[in-house]
Design brief:
Number of strands: 0
CATH topology: Endonuclease III, domain 1
Distance between the termini: 25 Å
Radius of gyration: 15 Å
Number of domains: 1
Strand content: under 5%
CATH architecture: Orthogonal Bundle
Shape: globular
Largest sheet: none
Number of helices: 5
Structural class: mainly alpha
CATH class: Mainly Alpha
Length: 111
Amino acid sequence: MVDQQLSVVAATTLMRRLVNRCDEFSPTALRAADLDTIGIPGRRVAALRRLAEAVATGELEREQTDWTTIDAGLSRLPGIGPWTRAYLAIRLRQKPDTLPVDIAAAPCSVL
């Protein structure tokens, strides 16, 4: 979620800042970290915190292997839309053939 719509260099910088703000990279540490001044837009910070809270409290199971269940849980969290969930499915090797675009809204050159 941090690297969406950013260059690789910018995403790397933001991830480094994010990791430096946490004592450890965990949902609990992410919830407690001061993320307000690291350069991530406020709505994205709120979405990251909400995701961390959902994982830390067990609302969203990290060990769940059924992607349909994970996807349904993610879809209920603000700031995590279809594109982000499709991208996560690819990165988590749940749906490697997923295309994270809205085909109906995509320009013809994408098809």
